[in-house]
Amino acid sequence: MTAVVVPASRLAWTQGLAYGALGLPLAFVALPLYVVLPNHYASEFGIPLATLGALLLGARLLDAVADPLIGRWVDALFLRRTAVLLGVAAIAALLAALGFRGLFFPPVRDGNALLWWCAALLALTYLSYSVLAVLHQAWGARLGGDEAQRTRIVSWREGLALVGVLVASVLPSVAGLSAATVAFALTLALGVLLLARAPQPRSGDSPAATPRPAPGVVPGLVPSLLAPLATASFRRLLAVYLVNGVASAVPATLVLFFIRDRLQAQSWEPLFLASYFAAGALSMPLWLRAVARFGLARSWLAGMALAVLTFAWAALLGPGDVAAYAAVCVASGIALGADLTLPGALLAGLIQRAGHSQRLEGGYFGWWNFCTKLNLALAAGVALPLLSLFGYAPGSQDAAALQALTLAYCLLPCLLKLAAAALLWTIWMRKEKE
To answer: Same domain, yes or no, for 15 and 97?
Structure first.
């Protein structure tokens, strides 16, 4: 297969769709595993929630720790023929689809055997997912290009990922779990097939892609694995990404508590969530225009400012403020579009400037995904204990407890976003050229 790199101005929508399509099933899988699976095992099989929580945490920790190693392996795969790369993607997709199906329809129902089955298939599904996710991200980064091209590539991937989240939030309840697992398998297969028709990064098919060490990297597993962390600009960007990610993950962790207890609007949850994710997906073209005019870092800074203003306003809301909170969901969804699109495009440019292009993209995105998963863990680890400390419990209507919920959901993210914005300005924008 001939390698093709398409300039941003010539990236047709069919090419963007072909690359981004895999993002839909990769986003689809997360929501059922986190939200539906615990309830399914508790109600259908009588497994205690604490046990399920421990299993999910263990599988997620294994997945997070494996990400940098997966990234290093993916870099080695890109030195092979494109057919080999796509073959690995197909195998990982098959294992992820089988694991996902097997988790919801286990062949055993006995307590211990079921727990072992669940643990094994969680590990299989998460690791297969991570191989596909890192490969997909590294593929996009290896296409290269200027700011506009990098942003457009990430926008296709993350925009379709938001569509996947929307589908996953509706399909299991509307069509059932069996239909959801079949839909996941079909969209995953389609994503891999379309990836074969997407613009191709340089790989072993190209004489230019010879196995040579990246600049400043001593050959070997450990030096290559740590090479991204040895890059000062990556450490700076990772610091901004980590703080900003926690700021975004805190309200995501607490949103249902806020809707149910503060707003007392549980029946409006589907509208709120749909408007949030739809606004994120539809905002992608707006952020592309912003990047063309203001650059990546300044546009990301604007997204952070929008999030701060939005959540500061949300702190003023109370019971029955449905329309106002719907507006909050739309505005925060637009800010989400910046968080999903712009950091990844900044990272792709960083890899180019570091001289690691076509060599260590997988390694960079392995560490990047490790931090993404760390964000979620830190958000739960910060927000939930704080709420408990100040007396909040789900269903509480005590004024002090609800005030604590508002502070955690609205003002804590504002403080963290402001810290991320300060970091972006001081340790990135003043030191790096976009």
So the answer is: yes
In a domain, 381, yes or no: yes
Number of domains the chain is built from:
2
Domain of 113, CATH number, reads: 1.20.1250.20
Residue 214 lies in a domain: no
Render pLDDT for 139-179 as a digit per residue (tens, 0 to 9): 999 998 888 888 899 999 999 999 998 888 888 878 889 99
Instruction: Report whether pLDDT(2) > 60.
Output: no
pLDDT digits (tens, 9 = 90+) for 58-104: 887 888 889 999 999 999 999 888 899 999 999 999 999 999 999 99
Residue 153 and residue 245 share a domain: no
Within-domain flag for 112: yes
Summarize pLDDT for 310-327 with one digit per residue, the tens. Answer: 999 999 999 999 999 999
Residue 319 domain boundaries: 223-434
Asked if the model's pLDDT at residue 208 lies above 70, the reply is no
How much is the pTM? 0.80
Query: Does residue 1 form part of some domain?
Result: no
Question: 3-state SS string over the chain?
Answer: CCCCCCCHHHCCHHHHHHHHCCHHHHHHCHHHHHHHHHHHHHHHHCCCHHHHHHHHHHHHHHHHHHHHHHHHHHHHHCCCCHHHHHHHHHHHHHHHHHHHHHHHCCCCCCHHHHHHHHHHHHHHHHHHHHHHHHHHHHHHHHCCCCHHHHHHHHHHHHHHHHHHHHHHHHHHHHHCHHHHHHHHHHHHHHHHHHHCCCCCCCCCCCCCCCCCCCCCCCCCHHHHHHCHHHCHHHHHHHHHHHHHHHHHHHHHHHHHHHHHHHCCCHHHHHHHHHHHHHHHHHCHHHHHHHHHHHCHHHHHHHHHHHHHHHHHHHCCCCCCCHHHHHHHHHHHHHHHHHHHHHHHHHHHHHHHHCCCCCCCHHHHHHHHHHHHHHHHHHHHHHHHHHHHHCCCCCCCCCHHHHHHHHHHHHHHHHHHHHHHHHHHHHHHHCCCCC
